[in-house]
Structure formats: structure tokens, C-alpha cells
User: What shape does this take?
Amino acid sequence: MSFTNVAIIGLGLLGGSIGLAVQHYLPGIRTTGYDSDAETRRRAGDRRLADRICESATEAVAEADLVIFCVPPGAMGEAAAEIAEALPTGAVVSDVGSCKQSIAKALGDALPDHVIIPAHPVAGTENSGPDAGFASLFQNRWCIVTPPEPCDLLKLTALVEFWEALGANVEIMDAEHHDLVLAVTSHLPHLIAYTIVGTASDLEDVTESEVIKYSAGGFRDFTRIAASDPTMWRDVFLGNKDAVLTMLQRFSEDITALQRAIRTDNGDALFDHFARTRDIRRSIIEEGQDDARPDFGRADHGEE
Ligand code: NAP
Assistant: This one.
């Protein structure tokens, strides 16, 4: 492994998971960690999310050969500016942000003289904060690396090897394409979940207790996604605005077509659509990206 000192800025779900994963899978690497929140730093110390928890970002990066920003997308530029004076020459700067073009620009503006190789591990949960991280978060999950053009090949290889050592499968992708793909696979589903949970809670003729009582009918699975961190998701939608709006337009057209099929009693159109979507679910399970057991393997169904 080319890296010996990894600095993690932001010690929530992603930063904490990287710290724990490095200790577990790359025990030869020393980690330093910093979070702007004092209580998070204290909790990170209790959980040993990094070998050393620092009181400032400059202290955390002072000896780093890899710095990974794990802060909300909208805080990347500010966090990068904070370390500009202290960052060793030659250190690789990366991040885990969920949208790539806007973050690459923010990091580049703050650190114009450094090698920046953005990345996005497509792994997470609806939980956030210093208690949310765990070492196996990246196992068998994709990590999309979006190198600039041109990019230092040795440094790119070192970053790819780092993520592979933490258990991820790495894909190299153009940042613009990343933002389009993630708009439909992640950002739009979150927007739909936030919408539907909001709609249900605003209904006047269905009580809140009924929504909760009968949630196993499908609603419950949306609520898991809609419980995701509001700061992060506000930043994702503003940071990937164009791609999200493009996908939202496509989604509106498709839902209008289904609306028409229901109104005109076009059962064949509905059946064909649902059969196609069921095939997608099967492919996700075949690729090991989800659990095939009924109800996502929930324990209350006696599956575990
Ligand atoms: P998180 O659990 O909320 O952790 C982020 C941490 O960064 C918080 O403790 C936050 O403190 C801290 N922070 C904010 N500004 C900072 C600054 N300037 N300097 C140092 N620390 C700062 O969030 P997360 O889920 O780990 O997400 C982090 C990044 O990972 C985001 O960019 C997100 O897009 C990406 N990501 C998330 C997921 C997911 O499922 N959650 C998956 C893949 C990628 P405060 O709470 O005090 O602001």
C-alpha cells in the first residue's frame, strides 16, 4: 500500500467507517481524524474511529499522504480551504461526496496546487454521525473514482488500491456521467421517498396512526430512505441540480404514462411495466447488491 498516513476530515458515517475499515483491513496505515463538531470528536475518540483525533484540520493533515474529505457536499470547499496552508506537497486529496462535478470544482478552487482525485463509495445507510460507522460498510460495494483529465497514474492506482483493500469494487468514471447515473439510481429515489412520506403525513382523511399501523404495505421502505440526513441531501440536490432535474423530467413523463394506463384500464401496459421492473430487482440480487430474502431479510419475519 502506497499510503502510510491517511487524514479523515469529517467523522460521521463515512469518515468513521473509513477509519474503522483502515484499522481492520490496512493495519499498517496510521490515521488521523478531525471533525468540526467537538462532541463528534469526543465520541470519535471513544470509538477509536482514527488512531489520533486532532483538535484542528491542519493538525490532522500535517503528515498526511492521503486526505479524504467526508463532510457534507456543501461543506467540501470550506473544509478544503481550512487545510490549504498545512497540506504536504504531493499528498493526494480525495473525498466521498455523493455528487462529483460540483465537489471537484469546490476542492480544486480551494487547493489549486494539489492532486485531487474525487471518489464516491456507493455505500451508506440512513444513519449519520460518529456512532453510525462500521468497518465492513464498503465490502462488495462499488466505489466510483472520477479522476481529472489528465491524472497522475501512480496516485490514481494508489487510491484505487486503497479502496479495494477496504473491500470495494472500483469503477473509474467521468464525473459528468457519474452525476447522471447517480441522479437516477440514488438522488431521484431519495426525492421520491421524501415526497411520498411528506404526502402521507399531510393527508387529511387518513390519520397518522393509520399510516404508521399499515406501513408494511410498502410505505415503511420509503420511510427508511426518507430518514436520511437532511443536510447531506439538501446539498446533494443543489450540488447535482442539472442531472436531477433531467431525471425528474423523465420520471414525470413515465409516471404520467402509468397514470394514463390506469385511467384507460390498460392492464397489459401496467403488467408489462411491472414485469420489466421485477427483472431489474432480480439482477440487483444476482449481483449481490441486496438481500433476496422476503422483506429484505427483516428479522421479524423469522428469517434470521
Ligand atoms: P455525517 O454522518 O453527517 O458526517 C459528516 C460529518 O462532517 C459531521 O460530523 C459534520 O459535523 C462534519 N463536518 C461538517 N463540516 C465540516 C468541516 N468543515 N470540517 C470538518 N468536519 C465537518 O455524513 P456522512 O453520511 O458521513 O456523509 C459524508 C459525505 O459522504 C457526504 O459528502 C455524502 O455525500 C457522502 N456519502 C454519504 C453516504 C450516506 O449514505 N450517508 C453514502 C456515500 C457518500 P456536523 O454534524 O456538526 O455538521
About this structure: The pocket of NAP is lined by residues 9-15, 34-37, 40, 70-73, 75, 78-79, 96-98, 121, 124-125, 128-129, 132, 229, 232, 236 (CB under 6 Å).
